[in-house]
Amino acid sequence: MHIAEGFLPPAHAIGWTVAAAPFVVHGARAVVREVREHPESTLLLGAAGAFTFVLSAIKLPSVTGSSSHPTGTGVGAILFRPPVMALLGTVVLLFQAMLLAHGGLTTLGANAFSMAVVGPWAGYGAYRLTRRLGGGLLGGVFAGMALADLATYVTTALQLALAFPDAESGFAGAAGKFLGVFAVTQVPLAIGEGLLGVLLFRVLTTSARPELERLGVLARNPRDTPTEERR
Amino acid sequence: MRRHLVTALLVLGVVALFAVPLLLGGESDYAGSDSQATELIEDSGYQPWFESVFSPGSSEIESGLFALQAAVGGGVLGYVLGRLRGRRTAEQAAGRRSPTDQP
Lengths: 231, 103
Fold this sequence. Notes:
The complex is a heterodimer. By secondary structure, chain A is an all-alpha fold. Chain A has one domain: Arp2/3 complex 21 kDa subunit ARPC3. Chain A has nine helices and two strands. Chain A has helices spanning 10-37, 42-55, 74-80, 82-99, 108-132, 136-163, 170-207, 209-214, 226-230, and strands at 60-61, 66-68. Chain A has a two-stranded antiparallel ribbon. In chain A, a hairpin with a 4-residue loop joins β1 (60-61) and β2 (66-68). Chain B is mostly helical. Chain B has a domain at 59-97. The two termini of chain B are 28 Å apart. The interface between A and B is large, with 69 and 59 residues.
C-alpha cells in the first residue's frame, strides 16, 4: 500500500496530506492523553506500535504470484480505539519513507490516510460489529485485524485510481486495475494477519487481563468472558 | 493441553497460508504489489516529480534495513509480552504465599 515517492500528482499529494493531518494530530493527542491518564497503558501501547512495526516490514508471498506486506494496525485500534493508530501508523510510514525509500514524504499523507486512518477505523468497525453479533472477543479480533489490512489496500487502489483514471474507462476502469494488483493479493495476507491477531490476544487475555478489563476489551467479571468459555 | 493444541494449529495455519503459494507458485517471481502498481503508473507515461531523500545503496542494504525494522518491532513486542507474563507469574506466586490477600 506504499505509494512510491513522487508518484502522486502534487494536487493529490497535498490533498491527502491535508485530509490525513487532523487525524494524525488528534491521534497524537489521544496517545499523550492515554499515557498521562493511564501510565500502565504504556506497555500495551508499545506492543501495538511494535506489532505494526514488525508486520509492515515483512513481505509475504501470496496466491497471485506477487508479494505484499500486512499492516498490523488492527491490534492498536481494538485495544485503544483507532485514533491512537493514526499516530503510530504514521510513525512507521515516516520511518520507511526516510530510511527505506519505501513510500515517500510527498505520498505520506495518502499512505497515512489508508494505513493509519481508514484501516484502523474499518478494522475497529468490523471488530465491534462482530462482537455485537455474538462473535466473541477472538472472532472480533480476527475480523478486525483482517479488515484493517484489506481496507488499507482497497483505499490505496482507490487513491491511485483517483489520481490516474483510465483513458477510456475512467475512474472505474482504473479502480478495477489497481484493485486487481492490491486487493486479491492481500486476501491471504489479511487472513494470516487475523490469525496472528488471535494468537496475540490469546496471550494478552491471560497476561494482561487487568489492562484489557480497564480498556473494555474484556468484561469485568472473568466468569462470563468469551475467552473463558473457549478454553 | 487443549489450549496448546489450538495455539499450535493457529501457528500452523499462518505458516501454511504463506508456504502453500510458494510451493504452488512455480516460476513466479513474487514481485511486490507496491512496485507492480508503480509500473502500471509508469506505463501510462507518468514521471515521478520527487525523489526519495535517502535510498539504500543496494537491495542487500535495503533488506538489512527491513530486517532491522522487524527486529526492533519484534524486540519491543517480546519485551512487553515477557514483562506481562513475568508480572502474572509473580502475582500468582505472591497469591500462593498469602492467600488472605486474594479477594
